[in-house]
């Protein structure tokens, strides 16, 4: 009987080797371990074994059952996991290349920029996307009747909060919390209530920067931005400043970069102008500093609102902003 049991075990081990299909495995398990399976049938003969030998045979039978159960369970597990049993794992076979995901182009550029700023001593902060009217507008010296508050552009909530229309909502929050000197960037989503087209989406990413210290001027802003842009584009970029109005900076500018697609000669990406508008910026308005509890006689600073989504589009030459949030794998797989 002992021999029969051992034979049963080795036979099962042999049979199980080739199995890759969970149904076949289940049938085989039943054949061996089922209520009317081979083991059960074999054990019926125990009554023919001499009484004094029974405990020994019983123990062997138990061990065989335990081992079979273990083998089947393990196989079930590995077949369910990847469709192949690890009993026939062959380390000399060529590997199976599985498709894995990768970072979204937006995430990748954001990480690059964060790294570049971290090297210049900026700390990365996160903040609320659901914001009060105060931090989104009032604290930033945006008057009540300013068109930016218009329902055309802003998603208003019933309780008078807003979906932040820009990452500038963090300027006063951060100054209140950390005071001066301050050096931080705030990447994140912003929302605008407008109809979408190839260059506008209701949800997009900005990367705000704020530096407050003694004797800060526009030269510092330009130096920081040029260093950043050459890191991102891996090339020396030419920038220009044009006057631009934002109630929370004085003076305010629009920073353009020379189009990298045509190198300034004129192309569809830069609308034939040779320049691409990339970043509104300026020196922090004294009122904003004061609203954040910072003495504007003692400190000055610069702020910028980098269009992260636009930068990604420039870098990868993407011609429709809506692709970025489409979740379309045909688009995403290209990066
Ligand atoms: N928050 C402004 C916008 O979204 C951009 C900006 C940021 C301008 C910082 C100046 C300084 O349009």
Structural class: alpha+beta
Overall 3D form: elongated
Say which CATH homologous superfamily of the largest domain is assigned. Answer: Bira Bifunctional Protein, Domain 2
Share of helical residues: 25-40%
Q: Helical stretch count?
A: 11
> What gap, in angstroms, lies between the N and C termini?
65 Å
Low-pLDDT residue spans: none
What is the beta-strand fraction? 15-25%
The top-level CATH class of the largest domain is Alpha Beta
Q: And the CATH topology of the largest domain?
A: BirA Bifunctional Protein, domain 2
Query: How many individual domains?
Result: 2
- CATH architecture level-2 label of the largest domain: 2-Layer Sandwich
The ordered H/E elements are HHHHHEEHEHEEHEEEHEHH
What's the helix and strand layout?
Elements: H1 2-16, H2 22-33, H3 38-44, H4 54-82, H5 105-119, E1 123-124, E2 130-131, H6 133-136, E3 162-163, H7 170-178, E4 182-191, E5 203-213, H8 218-233, E6 239-243, E7 249-258, E8 275-284, H9 286-291, E9 300-307, H10 308-316, H11 329-332
Parallel strand pairs: 1-4
Antiparallel strand pairs: 2-3, 4-5, 5-9, 6-7, 7-8, 8-9
Helix pairs in contact: 1-4, 2-4, 5-8, 5-10
The structure holds phenylalanine (PHE).
